[in-house]
User: Fold Flavin reductase from Pseudoalteromonas caenipelagi.
Amino acid sequence: MHFTKQDIENLDKQTRVHFINSLSGFKSANLIGSVDNQGQENLAIVSSVFHLGAHPPLVGMIIRPHSVPRHTLENILQTGHYTINHINADIVEKAHQTSARYNKDVSEFTAVGLTPHYNANCIAPFVKESKLKMALALRSTQTIELNQTELVIGEITDVYLEDDKAYCQDGFLDLEKLNTVAISGLDRYHTTSGLTRLSYAKPNTTLQTLNVTSLK
Amino acid sequence: MHFTKQDIENLDKQTRVHFINSLSGFKSANLIGSVDNQGQENLAIVSSVFHLGAHPPLVGMIIRPHSVPRHTLENILQTGHYTINHINADIVEKAHQTSARYNKDVSEFTAVGLTPHYNANCIAPFVKESKLKMALALRSTQTIELNQTELVIGEITDVYLEDDKAYCQDGFLDLEKLNTVAISGLDRYHTTSGLTRLSYAKPNTTLQTLNVTSLK
Assistant:
């Protein structure tokens, strides 16, 4: 099957949204916790969180114009802080339900049945049911002029890992031990199976398989 | 386990790289095909390709400073075109090997044993063994000032889907039919299993499970 630029243009809007959203490959599945200056909390599912750098530890995410997580963006701009929480297989339906257009005065935590968890290191709520939680400090926002999406970049200030068996000897995390899921397209969720872990590649050198061995 | 900002700072460099790269969740697995103005071809594995918008169909990717895919960035800037090719389970080792630091005059296609495929719609080579291939036209590049990474944004001009059974009735693609893999951390590859596909969420409405049914 070959889709030209014109074929893509000719798709009806919803078909094009599903199709184009499928093309980039598998996506991360995270819940973004935030509060506004009055303490009104918000929780939004986002599939656009991506690694941006390890030193400083930076994470980017894309917020679309007029999308539901705009409350999230407003909150982050007000407080400068937010949380990122991995979605695991046990909370997929609740996480997906946060994408409904709730009014600003509704906490998605309450609406979908997830538990907000606060600690002294971050003003924004974590998701208690998530097994990998991060606190972030906002570092920059910029508008992508091509389509008016917003690129939000934060620095990771704290990481909470529920199961230390996921922490491997070289710093690598075994996300399968945390039941972290992946997303494809707009709305499909996947569990994963480890295929292989491969050594640092060098020219003319055969790749080795690396162990995924926890410290504990 | 709690890692503070200082704990992260204190990790040795390689441990920190593995750890922070694991935090964003699952990542897409793609090969970027490009050529320079003299036709010297290049192929690079990239885990940072992400969906940016459906209309126009835009895809972003992050190129790190001094990283191997800098040849890719130079080529894209020269020609304005590149390809994105999904990595499937059959070509994981070859795809990973493209990350070795080959000299500019070496084609990674030849070095790792993948087959370049050219057609009239794109100056850059596709990966014949990939089951989902896209041609892109460069739309913008911008430097992320926080860490000097480069955000490269392209518009999808052509999509080639090998197996039409992956195309579902509403435009959604079943990536599992294409054996597309996901990446975690720097170097682990995963196959996936569909957990569920969920309907558009609305407040006070129960989610429905959607079918993943091919057109053919």
In short: Chain A has a mean pLDDT of 95. The domain at 9-190 of chain A is CATH 2.30.110.10 (Pnp Oxidase; Chain A). The longest strand of chain A covers residues 132-144.
